[in-house]
Amino acid sequence: MVRIPVVLLSVLVLTAITMASVQNKGAAEIDLYGGKSGNVPFPHLRHQNVLEDCNICHTLFPQETGAIQKLKDAGELKKKQVMNKQCTKCHRQLRKKGEKTGPITCKTCHVKVEKERDK
Ligand code: HEC
Ligand code: HEC
Ligand code: HEC
Q1: How far is the CA of 40 from the centre of ligand 2 (A)?
Q2: CA 46, 72, 47 angle in degrees (round to 5)?
Q3: pLDDT tens profile 73-113
Protein backbone atom coordinates (compact mmCIF):
# COMPACT_ATOMS: atom_id res chain seq x y z
CA MET A 1 0.00 0.00 0.00
CA VAL A 2 2.74 2.43 0.94
CA ARG A 3 5.13 1.25 -1.75
CA ILE A 4 3.28 2.51 -4.81
CA PRO A 5 3.41 6.20 -3.85
CA VAL A 6 7.11 5.85 -2.95
CA VAL A 7 7.89 4.35 -6.36
CA LEU A 8 5.83 7.05 -8.06
CA LEU A 9 7.59 9.73 -6.09
CA SER A 10 11.06 8.52 -7.03
CA VAL A 11 10.03 8.34 -10.68
CA LEU A 12 8.85 11.95 -10.47
CA VAL A 13 12.04 13.07 -8.75
CA LEU A 14 14.21 11.26 -11.32
CA THR A 15 12.22 12.81 -14.17
CA ALA A 16 12.70 16.27 -12.67
CA ILE A 17 16.45 15.73 -12.31
CA THR A 18 16.75 14.45 -15.88
CA MET A 19 14.77 17.39 -17.25
CA ALA A 20 16.92 19.87 -15.34
CA SER A 21 20.14 18.37 -16.64
CA VAL A 22 19.01 18.47 -20.27
CA GLN A 23 17.71 22.05 -20.01
CA ASN A 24 18.10 23.72 -23.40
CA LYS A 25 20.63 26.51 -22.90
CA GLY A 26 20.61 27.62 -26.53
CA ALA A 27 23.66 28.57 -28.57
CA ALA A 28 26.93 29.52 -26.85
CA GLU A 29 27.40 32.45 -29.25
CA ILE A 30 24.50 34.39 -30.79
CA ASP A 31 24.58 36.98 -33.57
CA LEU A 32 21.90 39.56 -32.75
CA TYR A 33 20.34 41.83 -35.36
CA GLY A 34 21.45 45.43 -34.68
CA GLY A 35 20.12 47.37 -37.67
CA LYS A 36 22.28 49.86 -39.55
CA SER A 37 24.80 50.00 -36.74
CA GLY A 38 25.67 46.39 -37.53
CA ASN A 39 25.00 43.11 -35.79
CA VAL A 40 25.91 42.38 -32.20
CA PRO A 41 27.92 39.24 -31.43
CA PHE A 42 26.65 38.05 -28.05
CA PRO A 43 28.53 35.53 -25.87
CA HIS A 44 25.43 33.78 -24.49
CA LEU A 45 27.15 30.95 -22.60
CA ARG A 46 29.58 33.32 -20.90
CA HIS A 47 26.65 35.38 -19.60
CA GLN A 48 24.88 32.24 -18.41
CA ASN A 49 27.96 31.19 -16.47
CA VAL A 50 28.63 34.62 -14.96
CA LEU A 51 25.02 35.68 -14.25
CA GLU A 52 23.53 32.22 -13.48
CA ASP A 53 19.89 33.47 -13.47
CA CYS A 54 18.34 33.03 -16.93
CA ASN A 55 15.47 35.39 -16.08
CA ILE A 56 17.76 38.42 -15.85
CA CYS A 57 17.29 38.51 -19.62
CA HIS A 58 14.48 36.07 -20.39
CA THR A 59 11.76 38.16 -18.79
CA LEU A 60 11.71 40.62 -21.71
CA PHE A 61 11.82 37.83 -24.31
CA PRO A 62 11.39 34.02 -24.23
CA GLN A 63 14.10 31.38 -24.69
CA GLU A 64 13.58 31.08 -28.43
CA THR A 65 15.77 31.76 -31.45
CA GLY A 66 14.78 35.08 -33.03
CA ALA A 67 12.53 35.99 -30.08
CA ILE A 68 13.67 39.63 -29.88
CA GLN A 69 13.06 40.26 -33.57
CA LYS A 70 9.68 38.55 -33.43
CA LEU A 71 8.54 40.76 -30.53
CA LYS A 72 9.91 43.90 -32.23
CA ASP A 73 8.03 43.03 -35.42
CA ALA A 74 4.85 42.54 -33.39
CA GLY A 75 5.36 45.91 -31.69
CA GLU A 76 5.66 44.24 -28.27
CA LEU A 77 9.27 45.31 -27.83
CA LYS A 78 10.68 48.67 -28.86
CA LYS A 79 13.82 48.87 -30.93
CA LYS A 80 16.81 49.22 -28.59
CA GLN A 81 14.71 48.18 -25.59
CA VAL A 82 16.78 45.09 -24.83
CA MET A 83 19.94 47.03 -25.57
CA ASN A 84 19.07 49.89 -23.18
CA LYS A 85 17.12 48.05 -20.48
CA GLN A 86 19.42 45.05 -20.24
CA CYS A 87 22.77 44.99 -22.07
CA THR A 88 24.02 48.54 -21.61
CA LYS A 89 22.27 49.11 -18.28
CA CYS A 90 23.92 46.14 -16.63
CA HIS A 91 27.33 46.80 -18.16
CA ARG A 92 27.24 50.41 -16.89
CA GLN A 93 26.14 49.41 -13.39
CA LEU A 94 28.95 46.89 -13.09
CA ARG A 95 31.48 49.37 -14.41
CA LYS A 96 30.42 51.88 -11.74
CA LYS A 97 31.04 49.22 -9.11
CA GLY A 98 34.45 48.54 -10.65
CA GLU A 99 33.51 44.96 -11.56
CA LYS A 100 34.28 42.95 -14.69
CA THR A 101 31.76 43.95 -17.33
CA GLY A 102 30.91 44.15 -21.04
CA PRO A 103 31.05 46.91 -23.68
CA ILE A 104 29.13 50.20 -23.37
CA THR A 105 30.12 52.07 -26.56
CA CYS A 106 28.24 51.57 -29.84
CA LYS A 107 31.11 50.22 -31.86
CA THR A 108 32.36 47.75 -29.29
CA CYS A 109 28.97 46.00 -29.42
CA HIS A 110 27.82 46.63 -33.00
CA VAL A 111 30.17 45.18 -35.58
CA LYS A 112 30.04 46.43 -39.14
CA VAL A 113 30.37 43.21 -41.07
CA GLU A 114 31.30 44.86 -44.39
CA LYS A 115 34.13 46.81 -42.81
CA GLU A 116 35.43 43.73 -41.06
CA ARG A 117 35.52 41.93 -44.40
CA ASP A 118 37.29 44.80 -46.20
CA LYS A 119 40.24 44.74 -43.81
C1 HEC B 1 22.49 38.27 -20.60
C2 HEC B 1 21.24 37.84 -21.20
C3 HEC B 1 20.87 36.38 -21.23
C4 HEC B 1 20.91 35.46 -20.22
C5 HEC B 1 21.35 35.67 -18.78
C6 HEC B 1 20.42 34.22 -20.77
N7 HEC B 1 20.07 34.38 -22.08
FE8 HEC B 1 19.27 32.98 -23.33
N9 HEC B 1 19.22 34.32 -24.85
C10 HEC B 1 19.65 35.64 -24.76
C11 HEC B 1 19.51 36.27 -26.06
C12 HEC B 1 19.85 37.70 -26.39
C13 HEC B 1 18.99 35.27 -26.93
C14 HEC B 1 18.66 35.42 -28.41
C15 HEC B 1 17.23 35.79 -28.60
C16 HEC B 1 16.92 36.06 -30.05
O17 HEC B 1 17.41 35.32 -30.92
O18 HEC B 1 16.17 36.99 -30.34
C19 HEC B 1 18.82 34.06 -26.14
C20 HEC B 1 18.31 32.86 -26.63
C21 HEC B 1 18.12 31.72 -25.89
C22 HEC B 1 17.55 30.48 -26.40
C23 HEC B 1 17.06 30.23 -27.82
C24 HEC B 1 18.04 29.44 -28.63
C25 HEC B 1 19.10 30.27 -29.21
O26 HEC B 1 20.25 29.82 -29.17
O27 HEC B 1 18.83 31.37 -29.73
C28 HEC B 1 17.53 29.59 -25.36
C29 HEC B 1 17.04 28.16 -25.40
C30 HEC B 1 18.08 30.27 -24.21
N31 HEC B 1 18.43 31.57 -24.55
C32 HEC B 1 18.21 29.69 -22.96
C33 HEC B 1 18.78 30.34 -21.86
C34 HEC B 1 18.97 29.71 -20.56
C35 HEC B 1 18.52 28.30 -20.22
C36 HEC B 1 19.57 30.64 -19.76
C37 HEC B 1 20.04 30.47 -18.33
C38 HEC B 1 20.88 29.32 -18.06
C39 HEC B 1 19.76 31.85 -20.54
N40 HEC B 1 19.28 31.63 -21.81
C41 HEC B 1 20.32 33.03 -20.07
C42 HEC B 1 20.10 36.28 -23.63
C43 HEC B 1 20.32 35.70 -22.40
C1 HEC C 1 26.04 46.26 -24.89
C2 HEC C 1 25.91 46.20 -26.32
C3 HEC C 1 25.36 47.38 -27.07
C4 HEC C 1 25.79 48.69 -27.05
C5 HEC C 1 26.87 49.30 -26.20
C6 HEC C 1 24.99 49.39 -28.03
N7 HEC C 1 24.09 48.52 -28.60
FE8 HEC C 1 22.68 48.99 -30.00
N9 HEC C 1 21.86 47.14 -29.83
C10 HEC C 1 22.39 46.10 -29.09
C11 HEC C 1 21.51 44.97 -29.20
C12 HEC C 1 21.70 43.62 -28.51
C13 HEC C 1 20.44 45.33 -30.06
C14 HEC C 1 19.24 44.46 -30.51
C15 HEC C 1 18.18 44.41 -29.44
C16 HEC C 1 17.39 45.67 -29.28
O17 HEC C 1 16.91 46.25 -30.28
O18 HEC C 1 17.23 46.14 -28.13
C19 HEC C 1 20.68 46.71 -30.44
C20 HEC C 1 19.85 47.46 -31.27
C21 HEC C 1 20.18 48.71 -31.78
C22 HEC C 1 19.40 49.42 -32.76
C23 HEC C 1 18.05 48.99 -33.33
C24 HEC C 1 18.17 48.01 -34.44
C25 HEC C 1 16.82 47.76 -35.08
O26 HEC C 1 16.59 48.31 -36.18
O27 HEC C 1 16.01 47.01 -34.55
C28 HEC C 1 20.07 50.58 -33.03
C29 HEC C 1 19.68 51.66 -34.02
C30 HEC C 1 21.26 50.61 -32.18
N31 HEC C 1 21.28 49.45 -31.44
C32 HEC C 1 22.20 51.63 -32.15
C33 HEC C 1 23.17 51.77 -31.15
C34 HEC C 1 23.95 53.00 -30.91
C35 HEC C 1 23.86 54.25 -31.74
C36 HEC C 1 24.74 52.74 -29.82
C37 HEC C 1 25.69 53.70 -29.11
C38 HEC C 1 25.07 54.90 -28.53
C39 HEC C 1 24.48 51.38 -29.39
N40 HEC C 1 23.52 50.84 -30.22
C41 HEC C 1 25.12 50.74 -28.32
C42 HEC C 1 23.54 46.14 -28.34
C43 HEC C 1 24.28 47.28 -28.04
C1 HEC D 1 22.95 41.54 -15.79
C2 HEC D 1 24.18 41.92 -16.42
C3 HEC D 1 24.41 41.77 -17.91
C4 HEC D 1 23.50 41.82 -18.94
C5 HEC D 1 22.00 41.98 -18.84
C6 HEC D 1 24.26 41.71 -20.16
N7 HEC D 1 25.59 41.59 -19.88
FE8 HEC D 1 27.11 41.49 -21.26
N9 HEC D 1 28.43 41.15 -19.78
C10 HEC D 1 28.15 41.13 -18.43
C11 HEC D 1 29.34 40.74 -17.69
C12 HEC D 1 29.44 40.58 -16.17
C13 HEC D 1 30.36 40.51 -18.65
C14 HEC D 1 31.79 40.05 -18.40
C15 HEC D 1 31.76 38.54 -18.53
C16 HEC D 1 33.03 37.86 -18.12
O17 HEC D 1 33.40 37.97 -16.95
O18 HEC D 1 33.62 37.21 -18.96
C19 HEC D 1 29.76 40.78 -19.96
C20 HEC D 1 30.44 40.68 -21.16
C21 HEC D 1 29.91 40.96 -22.40
C22 HEC D 1 30.63 40.89 -23.66
C23 HEC D 1 32.05 40.43 -23.82
C24 HEC D 1 33.04 41.56 -23.89
C25 HEC D 1 34.43 41.01 -24.03
O26 HEC D 1 35.29 41.42 -23.24
O27 HEC D 1 34.67 40.15 -24.89
C28 HEC D 1 29.76 41.25 -24.65
C29 HEC D 1 30.05 41.33 -26.13
C30 HEC D 1 28.48 41.51 -24.01
N31 HEC D 1 28.61 41.35 -22.64
C32 HEC D 1 27.33 41.86 -24.68
C33 HEC D 1 26.06 41.89 -24.10
C34 HEC D 1 24.83 42.07 -24.84
C35 HEC D 1 24.72 42.26 -26.33
C36 HEC D 1 23.82 42.02 -23.93
C37 HEC D 1 22.33 42.13 -24.15
C38 HEC D 1 21.72 41.17 -25.04
C39 HEC D 1 24.42 41.82 -22.62
N40 HEC D 1 25.78 41.76 -22.76
C41 HEC D 1 23.70 41.74 -21.43
C42 HEC D 1 26.94 41.45 -17.85
C43 HEC D 1 25.73 41.59 -18.52
Answers
A1: 8
A2: 5
A3: 999 999 999 999 999 999 999 999 999 999 999 999 999 76
In a domain, 101, yes or no: yes
Looking at residue 94, which CATH number applies to its domain? Answer: 3.90.10.10
If one residue of 57, 72, 91, 97 were mutated to test the ligand 3 pocket, choosing by the most ligand atoms within 8 A of its CB, it would be: 91
| d(CA 104, ligand 2 centre) in Å | 10
Q: What pTM value is reported for the model?
A: 0.89
The tens digit of pLDDT for each residue in 56-71 reads 999 999 999 999 999 9
Ligand closest to Cα of 84 equals: 2
The residues near 44 (Cβ < 8 Å, ≥ 6 apart) are 25, 26, 27, 28, 29, 30
Domain count, the chain: 1
Largest CA distance in the chain: 74
Distance 72 CA to ligand 3 centre (A): 21
State the pLDDT confidence band at 49, using cuts at 50, 70 and 90. very high
